[in-house]
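Duplicate of #3305? Posting structure anyway:
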């Protein structure tokens, strides 16, 4: 059985790690390179860096940050934010990223998924999907949950898989930053209907939420930010608890 992955997420704005609720009311959480090194040394399986200013303010993800992170960590890391071309991905991978995450650019140009997976391999391509429930239906949103699309979460996820994505990072914008738990029903449906790994994101508040998302949500990995950044949950203790609940993890 594949081990479940614990993935700290570092939301980057102007070169600093930030965290808020539903992507607003942001507060500083530290230097991303220092945090990355700490996570690498304390049991994280992977890292995700999302330049949240990139899509909103049309700024490209900084390749030099990737280079500095690559020098400090020995675990895989994914970089996202404003990536919209083969050239963007090429620079990031050359500078040391293991994977890239695309979101808005994939919705606006779905062929980009095919192009990137064809060029670099599906194992390098993560498609991030942010969704909210509207009248009982999960609707894909862009720009940190501010802009609704006409896409249904599950239909879009299937298309993403068919186009060659290697995994999906699903964030429930209803749960993000609330610390009330992950959107496990939606995660379980995604995990059941798709054949690629699903990363759960949005809502982690305590260790039990991670147990629930692996058991009830059938997630392959769980991503969180503030509970790790502000030391509310220690990754080592989290993994020990997961193991005691018969959830396979790398210790």
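Output from current build:
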């Amino acid at each position: 059985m594949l081990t479940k992955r614990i993935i700290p997420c570092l939301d980057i704005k102007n070169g600093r790690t930030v965290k808020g609720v539903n992507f607003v009311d942001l507060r500083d959480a530290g230097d991303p390179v220092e945090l990355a090194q700490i996570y690498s040394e304390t049991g994280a399986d992977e890292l995700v860096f999302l330049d949240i200013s990139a899509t909103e303010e049309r700024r490209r993800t900084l390749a030099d940050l990737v280079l500095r992170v690559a020098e400090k960590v020995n675990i895989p890391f994914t970089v996202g934010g404003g990536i919209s071309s083969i050239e963007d991905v090429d620079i990031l991978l050359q500078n040391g990223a293991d994977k890239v995450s695309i979101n808005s650019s994939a919705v606006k140009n779905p062929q980009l998924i095919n192009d990137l997976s064809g060029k670099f391999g599906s194992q390098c391509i993560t498609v991030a999907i942010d969704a909210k429930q509207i009248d009982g239906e999960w609707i894909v949103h862009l720009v940190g949950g501010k802009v609704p699309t006409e896409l249904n979460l599950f239909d879009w996820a299937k298309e993403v898989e068919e186009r060659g994505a290697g995994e999906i990072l699903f964030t429930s914008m209803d749960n993000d930053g609330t610390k009330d738990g992950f959107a496990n029903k939606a995660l379980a449906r995604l995990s059941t209907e798709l054949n690629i790994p699903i990363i759960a994101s949005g809502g982690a508040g305590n260790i039990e939420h991670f147990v629930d998302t692996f058991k009830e949500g059938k997630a392959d990995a769980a991503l969180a930010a503030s509970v790790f950044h502000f030391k509310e949950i220690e990754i080592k203790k989290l993994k020990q608890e997961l193991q005691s609940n018969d959830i396979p993890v790398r210790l």
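Confirmed duplicate; merging threads. The radius of gyration is 16 Å. Residues 55-59 have pLDDT under 50 and may be disordered.
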